[in-house]
Design brief:
Elements: H1 5-19, H2 28-40, H3 45-54, H4 61-77, H5 83-93, H6 99-106, H7 113-118
Length: 136
């Protein structure tokens, strides 16, 4: 039994068109961002309130602004290598509110270390060192 080549071609085209876009995302940055978004989806404000309470902090809108900034930065850029980098970014972002002094008032054990914990994010290496990120 001989099959008509034109019929095969039409069947293939029909199947291909019905399948739609079956491409796979190959952009590494997009894949990493999607993975980070999944990580962030495991956190909500109530989770943050619980972590903050264990740190001796009552989470309010000022704290949440910092936490949301940290979470947004993490989503866009991934984990930072050094806490100082993130501390400098926080100081710049919250300069109008008082910069480091303002952040220390909100997070007495350090805006990076406590802020990242409360945000449910990985704390950068060396951030919990008593010489960095901790006001005593």
């Amino acid at each position: 039994m001989k099959t008509d080549r034109e019929e095969i071609r039409r069947g293939f085209e029909k199947a291909y068109n019905e399948a739609g876009d079956v491409s796979v995302e190959t952009d590494v940055d997009d894949q990493q961002r999607a993975r980070r978004q999944r990580e962030l989806d495991n956190w909500d404000v109530e989770t943050g309130r619980g972590i903050a309470a264990s740190e001796g902090i009552e989470l309010d809108d000022e704290h949440l602004a910092v936490v949301e900034y940290l979470r947004s930065y993490y989503l866009d850029n991934g984990p930072v290598e050094h806490g100082r980098e993130l501390g400098d970014l926080l100081e710049t972002r919250f300069a109008d509110a008082g910069g480091r002094k303002y952040l220390r008032r909100l997070f007495p054990e350090g805006p990076v270390s406590q802020g990242m914990k409360i945000a449910g994010l990985p704390v950068p290496d060396n951030t919990e060192d008593a010489g960095f990120g901790t006001a005593r």
